[in-house]
Amino acid sequence: MRVRDLPGTRLAHPVTGAVTYSPPEGRDVIIEKLRQWEEFVHADDGLDPLIRMAVAHYQFEAIHPIDAIRDLQDRFAVRARAATRDGSDIELLAVLFEQPYCRISTVRERCAVSRPTATNWLTALAEAGLLEDVKIGRDRLFINREMLDVLRQDEGD
């Protein structure tokens, strides 16, 4: 299995550059973490399968993040500023890259803005083609399809 073997991978805030996460380094360390991850995924310990799936997804991304996310963050920040004058909010950009989707309530809480402001920001980004606005029940999810595409890419792509 090919794993990241170059040291120095860091996930950083898209605007400030502050490091928010440093994944494990070293091929042997990563292989061991992935072995432990595989044991967790296949364990038969009564844990709800949906919870196991969510935790496994998070753990995998934490062990083996994809460098292309940094490039996407940079491009996204430039395009977000062009789409909305408020879209350059540092915290908003951080929220949009914590996971490949977000909710209005998350933006409202994290960016300390009103619901209409959060809605306007996300709607403007969706209208600019940066996010996809999807209604699920009474909730609206704003999906970062480009980020999902990067996460789905094979390491060799």
TrEMBL record:
<dbReference type="InterPro" id="IPR036597">
    <property type="entry name" value="Fido-like_dom_sf"/>
</dbReference>
<feature type="domain" description="Adenylyltransferase SoFic-like C-terminal">
    <location>
        <begin position="90"/>
        <end position="146"/>
    </location>
</feature>
<dbReference type="Pfam" id="PF21248">
    <property type="entry name" value="SoFic-like_C"/>
</dbReference>
<dbReference type="InterPro" id="IPR036388">
    <property type="entry name" value="WH-like_DNA-bd_sf"/>
</dbReference>
<dbReference type="InterPro" id="IPR048770">
    <property type="entry name" value="SoFic-like_C"/>
</dbReference>
<protein>
    <submittedName>
        <fullName>Fic-family protein</fullName>
    </submittedName>
</protein>
<dbReference type="InterPro" id="IPR036390">
    <property type="entry name" value="WH_DNA-bd_sf"/>
</dbReference>
